[in-house]
Amino acid sequence: MTVRRDWLTALAFLAPALALLFTFTHYPAIQTLIDSFWSTPRGRRAAVFVGSDNYARLMQDPVFLRAMVNNAIYAAITIPASIILALVMALFVEGRIRGRALVRMSYFTPTMLPLIAVANIWLFFYLPGFGLFEQIRSAFGLSPRNWVGSPETALYGVSMVTVWSQAGFFMIFYLAALNTIPPSLREAAAIEGCRRWTFFRRVIWPLIMPTTLFVSVNATINAFRTVDHIFVMTQGGPNNASMLLLYYIYEQGFRFWDTAYAATLTVVMVAILSVVGIGQFFLLDRRVHYR
User: Fold this and answer.
1) In sequence order, what are the residues at sequence separation of 6 or more whose Cβ sits closer than 8 angstroms to the Cβ of residue 257?
2) CA–CA dist 4, 9 (Å, integer)
3) CB–CB of 252/261 below 8 Å?
4) Is residue 60 helix, strand or coil?
5) For the chain, what is the domain count?
6) CB–CB of 198/85 below 8 Å?
7) Rounded to whole angstroms, how far apart are CA atoms 146 and 167?
8) What burial class does residue 117 get, using C-beta atoms within 10 Å of its C-beta: 0-12 exposed, 13-18 middle, 19+ buried?
9) In the structure, what pLDDT confidence band is assigned to residue 273 with cuts at 50, 70 and 90?
10) Stretch 71-93: mean pLDDT, rounded?
11) Is residue 195 classed as helix, strand or coil in its secondary structure?
12) Would 186 be classed as within a structural domain?
């Protein structure tokens, strides 16, 4: 009787959270999957079942294929760059340096800014002829360049904004992981004359692998769900050079009001994230040392 009452009490406390989770997460996901097999209703014309036609349309959509390639390049840049920069910053501010609190705050500040504000700041940096980068280039006698207005550099420009905005957030997790390493390990390494690089590779890196796994999964999700700065800086242009999958979904769903095709794109994006996330977990989990 007591066990049954405990179960009922637990369910009573969980019920509000479960209701919100089902209403705003599970139900929309199921409905999106269903909508991907139907056409978009327009005016008095109701939606009709089209089967896999929307998925067949994906394979013939050059913009979708371009968005997939762009997203792969974007992820290949932002994920390792954010992780490496976050770890370097954490190792730097973890030591005893002057003004450590100020340095930590300056590293974390970009994370606290809305991505819309970050995008506008970097637009000023990229401003042709007058931006910060152009001022530096002109000091070396280099010709002006339109960083986000050129198909060759637009994707790399928005990738740099992402790295700058999220590296400070990941630094906090690495800093917490570094603080859990026992000082006795450092003292023993110092007595044995162990070099810093060897100590990092043999001791620190294996111990912070759980944090690296967590950060890498989050960085992967961010690589597919970040769209704010694309909307402000390039809107997927020029000539779809910076078109990412989520922004393409936004365009199809809210600009062209093709909700069925947007649902299909969403299902594909969730499937890709699931496969990549599970792959990351099983690949890195073998090297993770849990304590």
Assistant:
1) 40
2) 9
3) yes
4) coil
5) 1
6) no
7) 25
8) middle
9) confident
10) 93
11) coil
12) yes
Kindly indicate the confidence band of residue 134, based on its pLDDT and cuts at 50, 70 and 90. confident
* Domain span holding position 68: 53-285
Cβ atoms within 10 Å of 240's Cβ, excluding its own: 17
Query: 36: buried, middle or exposed (CB in 10 Å: 19+, 13-18, 0-12)?
Result: buried
Q: What is the spatial distance between Cα 28 and Cα 25, in angstroms, rounded to a whole number? A: 6
Contact at 8 Å (CB) between 288 and 215? Answer: no
* Identity of the residue numbered 125: F
272 close to 279: Cβ distance less than 8 angstroms? no
CA dist 11 and 5 (Å) reads: 10
User: For 39-56, what is the mean pLDDT?
Assistant: 87
Length of the chain: 291
Judge if the upstream peptide bond of residue 238 is cis by omega within 30 degrees of 0.
yes
pLDDT grade, residue 63 (50/70/90)? very high
Residue 58 lies in a domain: yes
> 276, 275, 269, 222: which is closest to 29 by C-alpha?
269
Distances from the Cα of 98 to the Cα of 109, 168, 278, angstroms: 19, 19, 42
116: domain CATH number is 1.10.3720.10
On the CB side of 9, CA atoms within 13 Å amount to 6
Q: What is the pTM of this model?
A: 0.87
Joined together, the tokens standing for residue 259 give 């909700």
Mean pLDDT of 187-193: 80
Instruction: Please check the confidence at residue 75 and state whether its pLDDT lies above 80.
Output: yes
Question: How buried is 141 (Cβ within 10 angstroms: 0-12 exposed, 13-18 middle, 19+ buried)?
Answer: exposed
For 287, other C-beta atoms within 10 Å of its C-beta total 11
Q: What is the pLDDT of residues 6-35, one digit of tens each?
A: 788 888 888 989 899 889 888 988 999 999
Asked if 245 and 63 count as a contact pair (C-beta separation under 8 A), the reply is no
